[in-house]
Amino acid sequence: MSIVRYHIRHLTTYRYSGRIDLCHSLAHLAPREDEGQETTAHRVNVSPAPDFRAERLDYFGNRTNYFAIQGSHASLEVLSTLTIEKPGTAAALPSAGLSWDASSTTGKLKDDSGIHLVNYVLPTHACPRLPEVEAFLRPSLCEGRDVMELAKELMARIHSEFDYVPGATDTSTPLGRVMEQKQGVCQDFAHVMISALRSVKIPARYVSGYIETLPPPGKEKLQGADASHAWVEVHAPATGWVPFDPTNDTIPGNRHIKVCHGRDYFDVQPLKGIFLGTGKQALDVEVDVKPF
Amino acid sequence: MIEATTVAGDRLDSFPQYAPDASRRDEAMGRDGSVSPAWAEIFESCRHHGEGVLEAWRRDAARTSRERGLAYRSDSLDGTEEGWTLDPIPWVISAEEWSRLEAGLSQRLLLYSAILADLYGERRILDKGLVPMEIVLGHRGFLRTLHDLPPDEHTVGLGMTAFDLAKDGGGRPFVLNDRFDSPYGLGLALENRTVVNKVLPDLFRRCQVRRVGYFFSSWFEYLAGRSPSDSPNPRVAILDSSPDGGSSEIGFLANYCGIPRVTASDLTVRDARVWLKALSGLEPVDVIWKTNAGRDLDPLESSHGMTAGVSGLFEAMRENNVAVASHPGAEVLQSPGFYPFLANLCRELLGEDLVLPPVATWWCGDPAARRFVIDNLSSMVVKTVGHHSDFRTRYGRRMPREDLAQLKARIEGDPGRYVGQEELTISTIPTSTDHGLAPRGAVMRTFSFLDAGGIPRVMPGGLGRVGTADGVIISTRQSGESKDIWVRSPVADEPISIARQVEQGRIISPEVVPSRTGENLFWSGRYAERTDSIVRFATRIIEGRSSGFSYDHELDAEHERALVKGLFRIFELGALLKKAKTPDERLDRVLRDETCPVGIAANLRSFHRACLAAREEWSPTSILAIESACDGWLEESEGVAPELRIESRLEALQLNLAAFLGLNLDSMTRDEGWALLDAGRRIERLTMLSGLLRLLLRSNATGTIGTLLNESVLFVSDSLRTYQSKFLTIPATPQTILLLLGEEDYPRSMRFLLERLESVLGKLPAPAKGTHPAELVGPMSTELIGFLSENFEGEQGRPGMESNAQAYLDSLLGRLRELGDLLTKSYFSHVGNPT
What we know:
The complex is a heterodimer of chains A (292) and B (835).
Chain A: E1 3-30, E2 38-47, E3 52-57, E4 63-69, E5 73-87, H1 131-137, H2 147-161, E6 163-164, H3 175-181, E7 183-184, H4 186-199, E8 204-211, E9 229-236, E10 240-244, E11 256-262, H5 265-268, E12 271-277, E13 281-291
Parallel strand pairs in A: 6-7
Antiparallel strand pairs in A: 1-4, 1-5, 1-12, 1-13, 2-5, 3-4, 8-9, 8-11, 9-10
Chain B: H1 40-49, H2 53-67, E1 85-93, H3 95-119, H4 124-127, H5 133-137, E2 161-167, E3 173-179, H6 186-199, H7 201-206, H8 213-225, E4 236-239, H9 248-257, E5 261-262, E6 267-270, E7 273-278, E8 281-284, E9 287-290, H10 313-318, E10 323-325, H11 342-350, E11 361-363, H12 367-375, E12 380-384, E13 394-395, H13 401-413, E14 418-422, E15 428-433, E16 436-450, E17 456-458, E18 463-466, E19 481-487, H14 498-503, H15 515-547, H16 553-570, H17 576-579, H18 583-592, H19 600-613, H20 620-637, H21 646-667, H22 672-699, H23 703-716, H24 720-727, H25 733-742, H26 750-761, H27 777-791, E20 792-793, E21 796-797, H28 801-828
Parallel strand pairs in B: 1-19, 4-5, 4-9, 9-10
Antiparallel strand pairs in B: 2-3, 2-16, 6-7, 7-8, 11-14, 12-13, 12-14, 15-16, 16-17, 16-18, 18-19, 20-21
Helix pairs in contact in B: 2-6, 3-11, 6-9, 15-16, 15-19, 15-21, 15-22, 16-22, 16-23, 19-20, 20-21, 22-23, 22-26, 22-28, 26-27, 27-28
């Protein structure tokens, strides 16, 4: 069995027009350890150096880092570097052995990580129940269709019917707007897919991570470069969680590196900061994913 | 002496003829018309005093409330902008009945405490299916971020809880509602007790009413005992998150208990510790009694774009550097979705049968229950299980057919979100009305907490609420009347005062003035003086119009123009003069403009806002003066009050402001907060005085106009009479300047104001770094003395005095602005504003 290895460098820079006196941050930058990949090295360097740091596991088992900078500063850099290795596998679509209209009656309480699956069926702030999402899903709801087949078709339809337009949305854009303008970026497409599956009680979760974007010879460059990436995982009792990437219409395999998962973007936001001070902020994110 | 005859068991055929509704249960009177023993003294007292007594008591209660500043409360049980009036007739409960209720409430407290510990710990009640998962996991108050912070014996679990009780037609008590995240109504209950005790002291004593002081003192002992620090004097603060001025009942609780009321912006987290931004610098906070939902507490860990709150607070809790009451994740327990499963939970978690049942409730996520709710929708109360803000409780009985159909569709579209509840016909209690005592449906909000030993403590009493004449439902969102609740005791309770406990050192929270309070006191002083000056300007203008000063219309008009221009220029609003060209338009800005900085209304609003934000600093009488000043003017501006001549309205406003300013002189402790209020007043007076004198100097007017302007400047600075008795001449510029700048021991002169300003600023603590603000005042005084000795020879100005005076005033205004900035930097903003 082959092994794939990646170096990842994820740099977030905040620049302020004024001085910031106090900053509290919460980072979801450390990869999960229970996802069949091994993190051989991981560091988060923060500049200026934090006055206080703490690491812990969140509700979903993701590692989070809290840090506070208590002195006056005009910019903030958070550099996450990690080395990952995982067994090379051919992406394949398993069968759930279960049709979508029977999914809600399966009665499995928890997934393998011990989280109640109901968490992934209920609506959230970023993935509300919307009639337009239900209407979008309807054409794919053929009677008796396997849960994973349904997810695959939904992924393909999102990829073909929505346009990938960086800057068309930001993290505060409501799902209804995304449905209306049929444009967005990876996290919007993930939210659309999650909301659609949840509307028929199929557990679906949001995955944050990275994607290798250097195209192999003769292959198309994948979208998601220069930023962190997001996709979806769908649960069935027979398969456990199965990943789908609606942004690229692909079943994630060797080129996707998973970091965290949760109900939606806000559960796993890579970096969240509350700044106290004056002035406006400018945010810049750079991501490099290099195989070696 | 009142005759102590009893009417228990008697029928009432004379006053107060009380006739409960035959179809409902009444707590005070049986169906045969006999009075229950617990209520005997109430009826007897009414009978003894005769007709008219109810009205007298009501009046007395209203007046007492008003004196205490309660009549102006703008918060209600939901923090909405509706008030509750107080009915002085209490809700009386016998000792036997209370002990039964207390047992039920105690069990409920233990039960919910066990549920809370499980939900933020092992979550076994979900694994076992004791509660449907979506009821918990779909509730906005279930905070996943606190999954690693289960309440234990060292931290706060439920904290102060509120359970709402009512009785049905058979006299069985039911729980209608629970509150786990805030003490709404607790302060109100305390206020009501204070007022009713004053209105009915004899009756209170004869009924041997149980006192509530002990309950409060044990609550504060409990809170202080939760402090994770080793400090012998832990600092407890009550966190008020109500918008604008803050909630009056929270201010009342803070005052009663002697702990600071703080807002989220007063607090900051550093090194995972919570600090209070105080005038003296950053002061550690050990225990926070929060009054808002936990999900609004820490923006760093809330899941959607909230920025208000205390960032880092949850981290400070995890590091065990602060205790927060209640557990921020307790709001999930408020879901009515628990009700159908409560009896079972009680057996599983406590091994007991549930004593006090909740109102019958069906969760629509269960198909059979859903059918039942839909089939009986017209008699159901429908609520959401997740406290979603987009759905208000619906009462089927009051809904037209088409709305019921819509509601049915809504439930069927997402049944797991809804519960249906039986609509109880709740029992009534006697309530005073314009036509004697009348029966009104009543709900009781009880308060309780688990103490450090896990022992339930229930407040003997609570907040009674009664509905309107036809109302069966008492919604917390609707205004109504509130009542004190009297729990009778076979023996008289010893009165206990929190104040005494503080003296005895049992409850200690070190004195500290939050920066926000200091800043608001400073601005209360400034706006009061500023408004007063504008009122004087307006009075002078109107006086000139109605009686004339000079027998010459042209001259009077010119004088008015100069005066108004001067006023606008003081506020750097010279540009506005081009928009408001006519004298009437200009005066209208002053008298009626709500937004323009020169408008009386705009300044009064700012004054009111600053005062209310520092509510706990004022005596009840000061509150009355504040409210009278603002209500009197603002309500009439809105055309509510009857027409009054503008002169008398200005006079009344001036009187109220004078009362407010005078009261502060008399009734406030001379602490740092007072120093800032006083500094604000003096800085404002100095600023206004500089502006007035610049107006005089710039006009360069001579002759009659000059005299009139001198008179006006003296009038606005309240110095006309002093001038006349001192100089015995018609007002002239050099003497006016001499008086207003240099007069010794004259409270309206700059010299005096500067001396006082320096000494009052001296009371403020030294800032963490940089210059002490008091040091900025010395040079202003020195420069003033220099100006006077160089430019005056006796009472006569030397040549060039006027241009030197202008230069001095310009420099003074610059220095005053610098002083204001330094005060802000040193005491008010330890860090900048959230971005």
